[in-house]
Amino acid sequence: MATKIRLRRMGARNNPFYRLVVADSRFATTGRNLEVLGWYDPKKAEKNFSVKTDRVDYWLGTGAQMSDTAKSLIKKARAGEGVEPGSAPQAKEVNTQALMEEVPEQVEKPADESAEASAKAEAEEPKAEKPAAAEAAAEEPKAEAPAEKADEPEAEAPEKQES
């Protein structure tokens, strides 16, 4: 079997992403592959590829041929460029204490304290105002339910005339 180390295009339209694969030369370029050896992202500026050089050496030992672009990526990987295979992106360390110190102190009282303050204010109000509010509520007319029309007979269906 004649094997080749080549790039396989993936990704969306206008956003290419490539995988470095080993495939039979008779397989389509977007078809089946034997092994994935790495990746290449041309849209990134730095560290835009990763190659498993030990697996590349194995496949070259079995007689695999490299495409020009694959040869270029492998050469750069052996020179120390690119991302180490299997390495995860470095997570950012967040200093939460520094973030807490940057937050300004709250100017307004929290909702629980403001509810307590309004309850105290209501208790301190003179009692004379409360009956006036009750009288105003009593003066408002209540909504009445619509009166049923008991006087009108229900409409009857017209009878059929016999011909």
Describe this protein's structure.
- It is a single chain.
- This protein is an alpha+beta fold.
- The protein has a domain at 3-78: Ribosomal protein S16 (S16 Ribosomal Protein, Chain: A), CATH 3.30.1320.
- 32% of the residues lie in helices and 19% in strands.
- It contains five helices and five strands, in the order E-E-E-E-H-E-H-H-H-H.
- The chain has a five-stranded mixed sheet with strand order 4-3-2-1-5.
- The model has no long low-confidence stretch (mean pLDDT 75).
In short:
The protein is 32% helix and 19% strand. It has 163 residues and is α+β, with helices and mostly antiparallel strands.
Topology of helices and strands:
Elements: E1 3-12, E2 15-24, E3 35-40, E4 49-51, H1 53-61, E5 65-66, H2 68-78, H3 96-102, H4 111-124, H5 129-139
Parallel strand pairs: 1-5
Antiparallel strand pairs: 1-2, 2-3, 3-4
Features:
163 residues, alpha+beta, S16 Ribosomal Protein, Chain: A, 5-stranded mixed beta sheet, 32% helix
Alpha plus pi helix count: 5
- Distance, first to last CA: 95 Å
**Backbone shape:** flat
Q: Could you report the average pLDDT, rounded to the nearest whole number?
A: 75
Largest sheet: 5 strands, mixed
CATH class of the domain at 3-78, named Alpha Beta
Give me the count of strands.
5
Spatial ordering of strands, largest sheet? 4-3-2-1-5
Q: Which stretches are low in confidence, meaning pLDDT under 50 for 5 or more residues running? A: none
Derived from helix and strand composition plus strand pairing, the structural class reads alpha+beta
In the CATH hierarchy, the architecture of the domain at 3-78 is 2-Layer Sandwich
Q: Any idea what the radius of gyration is?
A: 40 Å
According to CATH, the fold-level topology of the domain at 3-78 is S16 Ribosomal Protein, Chain: A
The helix content is 25-40%
Strand content: 15-25%
Order of helices and strands: EEEEHEHHHH
